[in-house]
Amino acid sequence: MSGAPLAAGSVDRDWRTPLELTVLGAIWGCSFLFMRVAVPAFGPYALVEVRLLLGALVLLPFLWQARVQFPARRWLWLAPIGVINSAIPFVLFAWAAQRAPAAIGAICNAMTVLFAALIAFLFFGEKIGVRRAIALLVGFAGVVVLATAKVAGLSIGAAVVAGALAALLYGLGVNLVKRHMTGLPPAASAGATLGCAAILLLPMALTHWPAAPIPMLSWACAIALGVVCTGLAFLMFYRLIARIGPARASTVTYLVPMFGALFAWLFLGEPVTGAMIIAGVLILGSVAVSQR
C-alpha cells in the first residue's frame, strides 16, 4: 500500500520533467526571436536594460524573502557576477541579433556547457578528460563552420564571435556562481545578480536610449524578454535543478537552438542554411558527448 503513492508521484514527475524542459527550451528559444525583433528599435544597451530590470523585478520577492542571507560582503561578488553572467552576454547577444539571424545566437548559446568545462579545467583545477577535450574541439569546429558561413550573401562572422564570447562569459559565470554563491537561494541569487547588472548597465542605457519612438511590437518583445524569458524562465530552471539536478536540467541546452531556429523561420522567414545545420550538429553533438 505504501508503494502506490510513491509510484504515482514518480509517474507525475516523469511526466512533468520533459514537459517543463520542452517549455523552458521554447521560452529561451523565443528570447532570440524577441531580441531580433526588438533590438533595431531599442539598440543593444536599452533593450538589455529593460530585460535586466524586468527580470530582477520578477525575482525581487524571492530576494526580499531571503534578504538576511545577503549581507554587504556578499554583494562584492554578486555585482561582478551580474556583469559577467548577465549584462555583458545579454548585450553581446543583442548586438549579434542586429547582424545575423536569430538562430545564430541560439546555436552559439549551446557552447556555454563546453566553455564552462574548459574554464573549470584552466582556472579551477578540475579534470576535463579525453572525451570532453575531444568534445571541446568538435564544438569549436562547429563555431568555425558557423563563423565562416554566409546567410543571404552576408557574412555573419562578427555576430558568431559575439555569440561565442557571450557563451564564454556564461561559462565563466557558471564557475563563479558555483564557487561564490553556493548555499544561497537560487532564485534570490538570480534576482540579486540581475539587479546589480541592471544598475551597472543603466548609464550606458540612458546615454544610448533611442531618440525615435519605440514601436509597440518592440516594447511587447522587450517586456516578454524580461518577464518571461528572464524572470519566469529562471524560476522554471531552478525548479528543475531542485527536482532533477543540474546535469539533467542542463539538457535544455539541446532544445534552445532548435526552437530558436524554428521560431525565426516561422515568424520572421529567416533561412536555415546547410552551414547552420552542420554547425548546430557539431556543437550540440559535442555538448551531448561531454555531458554523458
UniProtKB/TrEMBL annotation:
It holds the Pfam family EamA. The chain crosses the membrane at residues 45-64, 76-96, 102-124, 133-152, 158-177, 189-211, 217-237, 249-268, 274-290. The keyword Transmembrane helix applies. It is a multi-pass membrane protein. Its main location: membrane. It is found in: Membrane. Keywords: Membrane, Transmembrane, Transmembrane helix. Residues 24-147, 159-289 form the EamA domain. The keyword Endoplasmic reticulum does not apply. Belongs to the EamA transporter family. This is DMT family transporter. It comes from Stenotrophomonas bentonitica.
